[in-house]
């Protein structure tokens, strides 16, 4: 059995590329890295890699992580700059026994010394959006923050291996050095090949309060289906946050178990993409339903057309 699930419509082309690998007995690690690199390389996705929106100083600081579900090896980077593919750096770091989570200059220097491709990640389009926002913020009292759509992937290969990965340029207009959930084990991702894996997108500051990726894997380990595990973790924690913290940011999680069954839960409209040995690759729309359930429906052509227009609209 093989399978792959990923957050957001933006991951679909990567999932298609990973499907080819997985069908030919490629590894889950290669599937995760390949699919995430596709997103990092595409200039019109505003929250990941090249084209990602910068921090308040106009610098694209990126976070990424990779986890191997057989060995629990984890590699992660936070606040890395001018490197084309943070996911590949995170994956390489996962082989280090020590110093496997690098931040800021240490992460960038590690990547440069290891020979990873250097690239100015601030596209002219992202720079324009940033300049516009800086001007707006100077004029109004509105919160400058939005846009933190991480690509998160969980993959299962035909050798029973599982892996997970994330990549994000984080919160648009974030303060220098701000790090979200994406590189944090248990919050942005978690995978155990003997159970399954989960990954998150959304407001990192709130996701890390609940360690939801770990919670979903823990529930799956108790025999709960991926869908029920996602529903239980996401909706209970959304309620708990509202009760104890006063509000809950937008977040969504996807999960897959070792049998290739998957689940999704979200407290906001959310798209995701999935392919398995039994299911053709497809993009779905998810919304919170009643009584801690999730409404999942196939994406429509209208939705996709509007999305395509939106991401390429003149700034
Ligand atoms: N989920 C990505 C972030 O908050 O940075």
From TrEMBL:
UniProt binding sites for substrate: 178-181, 201-204
Pfam families: Asparaginase_2
Keywords assigned: Aminopeptidase, Hydrolase, Protease
Entry annotation: catalytic residues: 150
Site positions for Cleavage: 149-150
One cellular component term from this protein's GO annotations in UniProt: cytoplasm
E.C. number: 3.5.1.26
Protein name from the UniProt record: Isoaspartyl aminopeptidase
Species: Enterococcus hirae
Single annotated GO MF: N4-(beta-N-acetylglucosaminyl)-L-asparaginase activity
InterPro entries associated with the record: Ntn_hydrolases_N, Peptidase_T2
Presence of keyword Lyase: no
Keyword Nucleotide-binding (UniProt): no
């Amino acid at each position: 059995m093989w399978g792959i699930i990923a957050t957001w419509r933006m991951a679909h082309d990567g999932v298609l590329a990973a499907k080819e690998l997985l069908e030919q007995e490629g590894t889950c690690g290669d599937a995760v890295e390949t699919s995430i690199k596709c997103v990092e390389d595409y200039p019109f996705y505003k929250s990941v890699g090249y084209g990602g929106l910068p921090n308040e100083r106009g610098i694209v600081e990126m976070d990424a992580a990779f986890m191997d579900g057989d060995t629990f090896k984890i590699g992660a980077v936070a606040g890395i700059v001018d490197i084309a593919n943070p996911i590949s750096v995170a994956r390489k770091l996962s082989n280090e026994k020590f110093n496997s989570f690098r931040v800021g200059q240490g992460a960038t220097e590690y990547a440069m010394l290891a020979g990873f491709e250097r690239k100015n990640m601030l596209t002219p389009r992202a720079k324009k959006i940033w300049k516009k926002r800086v001007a707006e913020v100077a004029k109004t009292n509105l919160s400058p923050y939005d846009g933190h759509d991480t690509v998160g992937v969980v993959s299962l290969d035909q050798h029973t291996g599982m892996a997970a990965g994330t990549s994000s340029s984080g919160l648009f207009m974030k303060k220098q050095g701000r790090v979200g959930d994406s590189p944090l084990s248990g919050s942005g991702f978690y995978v155990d090949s003997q159970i399954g894996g989960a990954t998150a997108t959304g407001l990192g500051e709130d996701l890390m309060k609940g360690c939801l990726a770990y919670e979903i894997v823990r529930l799956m380990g108790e025999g709960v289906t991926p869908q029920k595990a996602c529903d239980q973790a996401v909706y209970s924690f959304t309620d708990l946050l509202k009760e104890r913290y006063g509000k809950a940011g937008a977040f969504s999680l996807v999960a897959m178990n070792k049998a290739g069954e998957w689940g999704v839960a979200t407290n906001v409209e959310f798209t995701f993409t999935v392919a398995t040995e039994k299911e053709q690759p497809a993009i779905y729309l998810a919304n919170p339903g009643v009584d801690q359930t999730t409404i999942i429906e196939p994406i429509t052509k209208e939705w996709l057309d509007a999305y395509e227009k939106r991401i390429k609209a003149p700034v």
